Fold this protein.
Amino acid sequence: MTKKLQKLENLNQSYQKISIAIPLIIISLSCLLCLSYGLANKIYGQNQTIPGPLLTDSNLKVELVVNDFDFPTSIAFLGNDDILLLEKNTGNVFEIINGNVTGPLIHIHVAFKDERGLLGIAVSEKEENTKDNSSVVFLYYTQCTKKGQPKSAQYCGNYVYRYILDTKNNTLIDPNLILNVSALPGPSHNGGVLLMDKEKNVYVTIGDLQPTKFTQTSSFDTKAQNLINGTLPDGRAGILRFTQDGKPVGKGILGDKYPLNLYYAYGIKNSFGIGFDPLTGNLWDTENGPQFGDEINLVKPGFNSGWEKAQGIWKLDQTRKKDGILNSTKEIELVNFNGKGKYSKPEFVWDKTVAPTALIFLDSDKLGKQYKNDVFVGSAKNGSIYHFDLTDDRDSLDLRDDLADLVFSKNDDSSKIIFGENFGVITDLEVGPDGYLYVVSGSRGTDEGAIYRIVPNLK
């Protein structure tokens, strides 16, 4: 272990007595107020202003596509200059064509406390065998209902529904439930990303749905959280993969019984970003630690991210606090589902949380050949966009000098990986059909709920 990592361990001992909610309560405006990012605080004073989004590359510029939305969480492209946008708390889905907003195409009565709400969207390519070439739209959201009598217990679920886009009437129709996972205990760590691979299988991130502050909630402890004596996995704390009909892909990676046969990865505290490498097809994710240990990971089938036994470069004790640096998996007891699951260390770690969110590979050279097929990661803190090159084998991030140990600490130079700042709470990054990078800001403090586009700065 390097001296730098040991120093990191010493510097962070004081943080272990502090229990705060994960700063990535990004999809909750109320929690952002509590976390004091200064993004939703309206008391700026009459003369106080917020600087606009900035890029480190003077050859590029930021354009405002559209704004004034109520905390947008995700977007998906139907075509060039044709975007579907979700609002977290209202449950509304809008269509934006050439900058003009229409809709809502549908209104869903979602639960929106904390990180609950209308969270994820994915669009399947138009089916050639349909008469009207309708698009298939998948939505991921949280709903809470009372069971039976008004005084009975509340059930909260995270659902994935499949819809058909009725282009004639500008609505989403024919809802078909394809995934139902409990959203309890909640209300945090719902994940929220939907993604589709080349085979049109659907991926969704779902966190552990437990509070960051340790509480004894044993009834919600499962083996998917690396708890040896936990109950069977129930869909939480992982990345699930299924067909457009909600069926497992093949026999399943970790097992053949539902819902274990849906797990592509597990041991994940929470994730708001997944993306496929266009060159290798490998899946990558961003993951949120508590007050330390945010991660970027290469996610191979059966990937175990280590939570609740490891986070970042650290071992965790039974209360999820740091218990020294992890040198070998022999030092911790992990669930491996009869050898089908495998832990691998993060490809990058932030010592102090930056609240990473969306992750995208820029499969375009429209911003310059130097960015093509590189990784871009959004965050909630400072509204930063991070940029990373990959090594030649595409299995690691290409980092050097003080970042060569793959850990960003307090004294490291962030300018080497910062691509942009002041974008507010970044909830999504997408590459449009035009090849440009689109940034969704859930809240920035001025132009609330905006979509930005990054394009060449033609001087």
Summary: Residues 1-5, 11-48 have pLDDT under 50 and may be disordered. The radius of gyration is 21 Å.
